[in-house]
Amino acid sequence: MKPAKILGPTLMLALLGASLSASAYDADWKRGRIYYRSVCTSCHVALPVGQINPSSKTMAEWSGYLQADKHAKGKDSVKHYVSKSYRASIKSANKAAEKFADVPDQELLDDVKAFLVKGAKDGEAPASCS
Amino acid sequence: MGLVSLRRSAGCVLAGLLYLFAASGVVADTKPLKLNTTADHSKFKELQREFQSAPEVTKACLSCHTEAAGQVHRTKHWKWEFLHPASGQKLGKKEVLNNFCISIASNYSACTSCHVGYGWKDASFDFTSEENVDCLACHDTTGIYKKPPGLAGHPQLKDVENPPGSGKITKGIDIAKVAQKVGKSSRDNCGSCHFYGGGGDGVKHGDLDSSLAAPDKDLDVHMDATGLDFTCAACHKGSSHDVAGSRYTPTAMDKGGAHMRGKEDKSNPATCVSCHDTAPHKQDARLNTHTGKIACQTCHIPEFARGGVPTKMSWDWSKAGERDAEGKQIVRKDAKGHIIYESRKGAFELGENVKPEYFWFNGDVNYTLATDKVDKTDSVTRINWLGGSPDDGKSMIWPVKVFRGSQPYDPVNKTLVKPHTAGNDDTGYWKNLVWDKAIEVGMKDAGLPFSGKVDFVKTEMFWPITHMVAPKEKALACTECHSKSGRLAGITGVYIPGRDANSLVDTFGWGIALFSLVGSVGHGLMRIASRRKHEEKENG
Is B402 helix (H, G, I), strand (E, B) or coil? Predict the structure, then answer.
């Protein structure tokens, strides 16, 4: 490969990395905890799935699950259930969705991920749903 | 390199620069900004290093927060002792005993995992040391800061095989990460000790357990994580690192009214009245007639242990010591998996959604100490008891968790005893299940005599209930108290309509009702008869 062909993409990636580290969002695991318990768990308990404790998976399994973004075995996505539009659709009946109605999607997803990874089976503080 | 390639590369770089320009905060709107603190501690050079011990972190904290350790030194969270201003009793965790794990004497390394300090492993602990103040216990925001029992209040910084030889590795914490993310105290900080008092989640208080870390409105209307989201400090307002509120001098009746901003008020800020005032019921003012005699908590905390975490209701140490056929210690659990028997601790009863018991309480709390005489012929020894009466002008009816137990005492010296329980040594009761050796060590550490004889006495402790405040819709209904066998059936000295009866008043009232009824019916019958007579006359 000619140097000129890789120069641009390499610089682009380097700059992207630098920018991400410069503006990296510091995830709030406590907000993630509230959203996971009030929205995810409250729905899972009502449906036949039941509670899914953060400590039921390892950190790698949670990261992989969220990366794959396949909720209900691929029927829809995890992102959907953290999105502003979903929160808007349930906020009349769910106080957590109402409270966090304006939080950017990616921030809230990062919050939930931070809670799940921290509370994973091999995480820093294994956690249950309640 | 061709011209096209160069142009393409330059385009990429330009696009990247533009992205970086926007994302790195040059554009004000996208700059990541913390709004819950004025200092991002991860940016401080003092904290950007490896720490070999927790006191090293404290030194770094004190290099800026120069007065903090001295302030902490003045508090009950540091001293664990309290001289009661009225009774003169020397109290505090260092002095009192209870009917849970009994006492900290000779068990320091385990108990001081909840001390806001490092290294309190025996009675020689230096209470003047600044670097032994633990800043992180109250200011950790990561939720990973833990102080395991047995390390005298130190966190575990390195991976350790626990128990030794088991192959199970307990990870050490990244204390630099904890230090770089310090912030304001939250429910998680206070709860890391106060939720786990008595040796486990929800064990001691009944109205404090891990369900309050992120509760819903039904569990606590103030701490509701999706609503008001009060921290503990919202009520237990701190000043110079001292936190308001005390188990030894609680405020049973607050006549001071609501606190005003800007007005100095030295009364307890953690009472209901300090916010809600003395006439808080706006929609039904009749309820305000109750506030002179009934603590708010009585109606607004219908049950405790409502968050799914059971609380211990009794602890029988006299049953401890059983072994299985192989001589090993036993653990028994109930259907829900909660421990109800342990060889090293005895038998327990647990409760969820527990209705409190009710007592007149004027704020006086007295203690039976290990220097006081107790007698087994007395039905029950009260380790603490609440002062109060219906006519002292200072008492209100309060909800209380009464914790009942049976615990070791010295039948010769007639005192309660402080056994050495925790510890992986030959005299620790939890390891060897031998009472006399354990008590001898514990009493020696406490500087108290022990005859060598061991018996058990029944004991009680009284814990006023004040957390887990339900929404007003779920407060007690009138009939919960205004009925013959209602919640206040055992309360004396006050007339409660619906519960109490006076034969003269009742006879008079029923008499009036009967006369009214006879009069009304008689009048009606006479009107009907008269009408018929009139109609017959008209019809000829």
Answer: strand
Report the residue of chain A nearest B146, measured CA to CA.
A125
CA angle, B342 then B347 then B351, to 5°: 115
Please tell me whether residues B318 and B201 are part of one structural domain.
Answer: no
Both B323 and B187 in a single domain?
no
d(CA B520, CA B504): 24
Using CB atoms within 10 A of its CB, is residue A124 exposed (0-12), middle (13-18) or buried (19+)? buried
Nearest to B17 among A15, A26, A33 (CB): A15
Mean pLDDT, residues B418-432 taken together: 95
- The span from the CA of B485 to the CA of B491, in Å, is 11
Q: Which residue on chain B is closest to A99 by alpha carbon?
A: B226
Within-domain flag for A12: no
Q: What is the pLDDT of residues A2-38, one digit of tens each?
A: 455 555 555 444 444 444 444 578 899 999 999 999 9
Which residues on B lie below 8 Å from A25 (Cβ)?
Answer: 32
Domain membership of residue A83 (yes or no) is yes
Interface test mutation site (partner A, options B7, B17, B20, B36, max chain A beta carbons within 10 A): B20
Find chain B residues with C-beta within 8 A of A22's C-beta. Answer: 20, 23-25
Our count of domains for chain A comes to: 1
Give how far A95 is from chain B: nearest CA, Å: 6
| A chain contacts of residue B32, beta-carbon cutoff 8 Å | 23-26
Cis check for the bond before B55: say yes or no (omega within 30 of 0): no
- Look at residue A58 and tell me if it is in a domain: yes
Give the structural domain span for B427. 311-480
pLDDT of residue B31: 63
Query: What pLDDT, in 10s, does the model give residues B94-111?
Result: 999 999 999 999 999 999
**Tens of pLDDT, residues B385-416:** 999 999 999 999 999 999 999 999 999 999 99
Number of structural domains in chain B: 2
Tokens 């056929």, residue located: B325
Q: Does residue A62 fall inside a structural domain?
A: yes
- Best probe of the B interface among A16, A20, A23, A37, by most B CBs < 10 A, is A23
The answer to whether residue B137 sits within a structural domain is: yes
